[in-house]
Design brief:
The complex is a heterodimer of chains A (278) and B (772). Chain A is an alpha+beta fold and 278 residues long. In chain A, 19% of the residues lie in helices and 18% in strands. With 772 residues, chain B is of the alpha/beta class.
Chain lengths: 278, 772
């Protein structure tokens, strides 16, 4: 059941100037979401499951060479191309801005994966297997997906629900365990403020390159950035010009019109490499 | 009290319940009262999770973690938001501690060797009487000629292991494949400090790093990553600039604004040339007595021999690398470094792993005096020592000279007993030391391993007494480097071992042995927890620091709840006087790097090994999450790759996935080619970490051609005056084998160049380099 809550609209901001490519988010996601162990052959077959991955791009040639890192995960698009092609409505957009995958409905057509421009949907070609002992670690809040089912980043929706329970019912700040004063314990989206609910990747990121919050939350870290990005879309839709040189805000494949709920902040390049054709 | 498994469990259980009874990461007192017969956390079925604070032990730096436990099973590790080092953040390695806990290849119970040594054939035995009796008998007969090899130990376990070794008349030594001894010696000589310093990256505006891959594996990467994030885009500050002077394109070089590929072994000369520019142009910070620092006119004359004009040739800097005249580049770099204050110079990694590594690191760290960043905000910050008398704040780590001596002692029969804990020297030492053969062939040697996993050294053991994994055991650690003030982390058992496992805590075994051998006077504790409790009581009596409590019991509980104790008011020294004529002394030490074995030629390459981002030196090679975490630069997983420049690969006639044989004067290994535009043409990079010959399937189930150990081919050149291994001073030849494999990497088949939509902002908004 989806909790009816008009005010939530989750969003993530990825600051590429902070990201060092360290892989902390990748392993944190695998630990949180019961992702099967990516064996050597999964990589060799290009079927590794990485709900979040760090892509690395080369720019230039030695000695004027740079490596760029960009974390890629489900963009939770407003106009998600994966959604209309599903014949069984296994993927849909919920009212909190999340692109949701219903594993029970999925019949494995893989149309959604074909239609996703970000390649962030993963199909279970095999029944996931762990040695018995490793199963002790599996997160009880997350389904173990079976063979034949599509899966993807959920923005750690289970942690959102845990956060609600902890904040609103138990009266505890989920991260620090500190008690919230009784007067403040009520159903109000501002309770779920930045810091007391985070996806596992954001929680782990040592440079704080990943930020996550409610886009409406005045005190949160993402509201202003989303407003700027939405302003850019509006400007472009009305035929206006966005001065790319003076903004770090962009969305991935914005021209496709998917309207992601994920915003990237460009890397600042003090000494750009010579980008002449190779 | 005699330690048996039953009463040990009772102790651990009581302690764990004590740990549960807290508000922070636990449940309420009342609920425990209602369930008084219940003594173990896994018996509490509440349908909710508990979070326990503890310490991460998947790398040598010490990070605070909180572990989510549900019905007695650990489910998730996260950073402890209170802990000063990592402040709620983690490295990829920390998360994988769960896989060590629930690993299918853990040694389930004590075992004794049943086949030839090294065959890996063992038979299970019981702790009582067999395991403990064998250990006691061996200690009685051989204790005085024993060597205990451990991971670098700090805190109470360091004290315990040291005292145990001296009580039985043996020796205890920490082992690290890539040790910090040269860095430590440089810090001692330049700053006169005994503990490693912290770098205040968060408040720095300019970082000049030589060889230190501080964003990936060097010293305390999670802490440095936190600082780096703020350094780049912290609120209310200018964006900082990072220059990386490094022979290899490391992860830190990839994140730098400018990477300068220097010839290996000449970093120290570059540092002195920067000092020469700063001194000759009078760019030093106010209040710096240049005369005293450089050593008067004689010193200035000596320093002038390191003018950029001279050094660019030696360091192999070309106009292509520096985008113009290299001499001007170095001068410009020196000016930026001196003017963009606070700035900080960091050196380590491959820069210190040369025969002249100590000179190199001293020259680098001395730069900090010139720009006034010694002990200052945004610079090098020093740490106070241990809060407890006699409890070590630094791990004692053996140098290559020590390991050579111990291998010789084993061969000559003077060492009759080897005890191993958390160290795999057979895998981690150069093959040419022949430690494996020494152990295998020693007739009168008894090897005891306390490791919970089989590795290349413990497979040679006569007796295996498996330790608990850190999530099941007590412990503490004095963070090194600390955050600039006194910090102690506490580790508590967050779960009990699974019923099919029968490990016993290593420190408890040592204490039991010392009692049975009648050495209580030196080690008067009944178990390790009581030793830690004594430490907690001592902290309580100091009446300072982060933990507040009215009684010693409450203090202990709050201490475990927060995962440690720290006192922001007890900082390291802020004002450090440079030794007189420091820079002259360093300049007089300058020497060329030595490369033994294969000479310089058109077919030889500098081999720069590096520590794997997640597997480290192989310490984590048995953890599948870390095997499958792609290397940040090449995205390769599960395999040993060799980074070859595109041009080099073309010249050798190899492409990605081909197998090459890398040959030094000592031996050769095979590795999978990864051709990259970022490797300097005369350098090849090979990661440590793979190539385990025994142990978990996750570490060993690959073919020799795709998983190899680069330590096998290193020359045993020493860093002068420290006796450490100069691990970046090997030259090799590369041969095509004609074989190839499917490379397992995340990147697609075609090379990923350019990022699509404008990824990088070409125009710098916050700080323009020309104005810096």
């Amino acid at each position: 059941m989806v909790t009816q809550r008009e005010n939530h609209k989750w969003g993530m901001v990825v600051d590429l100037d902070r990201c060092t490519g360290c892989q902390a988010c990748v392993v944190a996601c695998q630990a949180e979401n019961n992702i099967p162990i990516n064996t050597q052959s999964y990589f060799q077959q290009r079927r590794a499951y990485e709900w979040i991955r760090i892509e690395r791009y080369w720019e230039g040639e030695f000695p004027n060479v740079k490596a760029r890192f960009i974390p890629i995960l489900c963009q939770h698009c407003e106009n998600a191309p994966c959604e209309p092609v599903c014949p069984v409505f296994a993927t849909y957009h919920n009212d909190e801005g999340l692109n949701v995958q219903v594993y029970n409905r999925c019949i494995g057509t893989r149309y959604c994966s074909v239609n996703c421009p970000y390649t962030v949907r993963f199909f279970n070609f095999w029944q996931p297997q762990w040695p018995d002992r490793f199963r002790n670690q599996l997160n009880p809040d997350v389904t173990v997906r079976t063979r034949g089912v599509m899966e993807k980043c959920t923005f750690c929706v289970q942690r959102l629900r845990r956060g609600e329970v902890n904040v609103e019912r138990r009266g505890l700040e989920p991260l620090t365990g500190e008690r919230i004063p009784v007067a403040d314990r009520k159903l109000n989206y501002r309770q779920m403020k930045e810091g007391n609910y985070m996806p596992a990747c954001v929680q782990a990121c040592p440079t704080n390159a990943l930020q996550f919050a409610d886009q409406h939350d005045e005190t949160g870290p993402v509201k202003a950035i989303f407003e700027e990005a939405n302003g850019q879309i509006e400007t472009r839709e009305h035929g206006g010009h966005v001065d790319e040189a003076h903004t770090r805000v962009y969305r991935l494949f914005e021209e496709v019109g998917t309207k992601p709920n994920l915003i990237y902040l460009k890397k600042v390049d003090a000494f750009p490499v010579d980008k002449r054709p190779r | 009290m005699k330690l048996t498994r039953r009463n040990f469990l009772a102790w651990a259980g009581l302690g764990a319940v004590g740990a549960v009874a807290c508000e922070g990461f636990g449940i309420r007192h009342g609920e425990l009262d209602l369930q008084s017969p219940v003594r173990l956390p896994e018996d509490l079925v509440r349908g909710t999770d508990n979070w326990y604070a503890s310490l991460c032990r998947t790398c040598p730096s010490c990070e605070g973690i909180v572990v989510r436990v549900m019905e007695g099973r650990a489910k998730k590790i996260q950073g402890n938001p209170f802990f000063p080092i990592n402040q709620g953040k983690t490295h990829a390695r920390c998360e994988a501690g769960l896989q060590a806990l629930y690993h299918p290849d853990r040694v389930p119970s004590p075992m004794r060797r049943s086949g030839p040594r090294g065959s890996g054939e063992f038979l299970p035995i019981s702790w009582q009487p067999n395991g403990m009796d064998s250990l006691r008998t061996a200690l009685q007969a051989r204790g005085s000629s024993s060597v205990m090899i451990t991971e670098p130990l700090r805190g109470h376990l360091g004290l315990l292991a040291d005292r145990f070794a001296s009580a039985i008349g043996g020796e205890q030594l920490g082992f690290e494949t890539i040790d910090n001894n040269t860095f430590r010696a440089a810090v001692k000589n330049v700053f006169n400090q005994d503990t490693l310093p912290d770098f205040d990256l968060e408040n720095s505006r300019f970082i000049l790093s030589f060889g230190a891959d501080f964003l990936s594996t060097w010293v305390s990467p999670t802490r440095f990553n936190r600082g780096y994030g703020e350094f780049r885009q912290g609120e209310g500050r200018d964006r900082g600039l990072l220059y990386q002077i490094d022979s290899r394109f490391s992860m830190t070089a990839a994140n730098a604004d400018k990477w300068l590929p220097v010839r290996p072994g000449w970093e120290g000369h570059v540092a002195l040339s920067l000092a020469q520019v700063i001194v000759s142009e009078g760019l030093e910070a106010g209040g710096v007595d240049v005369g005293a620092l450089v050593g008067g006119d004689a010193g200035i004359q000596r320093l002038n021999t390191f003018r950029p004009e001279v050094v660019v040739q030696l360091a192999g800097l070309t106009p292509e690398m520096t985008g113009g005249d290299p001499v001007e580049f170095l001068k410009d770099l020196a000016r930026r470094f001196a003017r963009t204050r606070p700035s900080v110079a960091i050196g380590g990694g491959s820069a210190g792993a040369q025969s002249n590594g100590l000179f190199i690191l001293e020259a680098i760290y001395a730069l900090n005096y010139l720009v006034g960043s010694v002990g200052a905000k945004g610079g090098v910050k020093f740490n106070p020592g241990s809060p407890w008398d006699g409890v070590p704040a630094s791990g004692k780590v053996g140098s290559l000279e020590d390991w050579d001596r111990i291998a010789e002692q084993i061969r000559s029969g003077r060492t009759k007993m080897l005890m191993l804990h958390g160290a795999d020297p057979v895998h981690g030492l150069p093959e040419s030391l022949r430690l494996r053969d020494a152990i295998a062939q020693a007739d009168d040697l008894f090897v005891v391993s306390f490791s919970p996993f089989i590795d290349e050294t413990s497979v040679m053991a006569d007796l295996i007494l498996p330790d608990r994994v850190y999530l099941e055991d007590w412990g503490d650690d004095i963070t090194e480097p600390g955050p600039g003030y006194q910090t102690v982390g506490f580790q508590q058992p967050v779960v009990n071992p699974l019923p099919d496992l029968d490990p016993l805590s290593f420190p408890d075994v040592l204490l039991t042995m010392s009692q049975e051998l009648g050495r209580e006077s030196q080690l008067p504790w009944s178990n390790f927890k009581s030793m830690l409790r004594e430490g907690s009581d001592a902290l309580f009596a100091m009446n300072r620091g982060s933990v507040e409590a009215a009684s010693a019991d409450e203090f202990w509980n709050n201490l475990l709840k927060k995962g440690g104790w720290w006192d922001e008011n007890t900082t390291g020294p802020a004002n450090i006087q440079a030794p007189n004529g420091l820079i002259q002394t360093i300049a007089n030490k300058a020497s060329d790097p030595d490369f033994a074995g294969i000479g310089l030629g058109s077919d030889s390459y500098y081999l720069v090994p590096f520590v794997h981002n997640t597997l480290l030196d192989g310490y984590n090679a048995h953890l599948p999450w870390l095997q499958s975490a792609p290397d940040p630069l090449t995205t390769v997983t599960w395999q040993t790759w060799v980074e070859l420049n595109d041009v080099t690969a073309d010249r050798l006639g190899v492409k990605e996935g081909d197998i090459v044989r890398i040959e030094s004067s000592k031996d050769s290994i095979r590795a999978v080619v990864y051709a990259t535009p970022a490797a300097p043409p005369n350098i090849i990079g090979v990661p440590l970490g793979q190539g385990r010959k025994s142990g978990s399937d996750y570490a060993t189930d690959r073919l020799g051609k795709e998983s190899s150990n680069v330590m096998d081919i290193l020359e045993t050149t020493l860093v002068r005056d420290t006796g450490s291994l100069a691990w970046a001073s090997t030259r090799v030849r590369v041969h095509k084998t004609g074989e190839s494999v499917s490379i397992s990497k995340l990147e697609g088949n075609s090379r990923a160049v350019e990022i699509g939509l404008t990824p990088a902002e070409d125009i710098i908004k916050t700080i323009r380099p020309e104005n810096a």
